[in-house]
User: Fold this.
Amino acid sequence: MLPELKTFLIAMSPIVELRGSIPLAIEIYGLSPWSAYLWSVLGNITPIIFIILFLNKLSDYLIHNVYFFNRFFIWLFERTRRNFDKKLKYWDELALFVFVAIPLPMTGVWAGTAAAFIFGIKLKKSFPLIVLGSAAAGLIVLFLTLGVSFIFGY
Assistant:
């Protein structure tokens, strides 16, 4: 399998995302830094629309067909919005960008897309913010990877 395709697929994965694909692409697969960045960001943003569509369809189905899930989603949405509504209004959609851009565990495209869904941020607004957050996270990971490589002489 081509290293670019491996990098793309790893970046699509929900846990590793581009936090793992960029260092792997550079250090293991031997891709240039900018090629690793490009393939990682493209792979990372690919699932956004599918996640949103899947979450919408799944939650709609479960809300309308399973009483337990109806109660659960109502509780989840009300509780989450109540607890974070003031913070979200203060930061507005910038919070979504920052959440995706910080390359830490439990942040990233998958979690950001789920957060956009829970907070009811429409795809038209959330998609560009998540893409920009992914691009920013990719740059952070790229520079950290290159810095570590430079410091340790890889």
The first helix runs from residue 3 to 12.
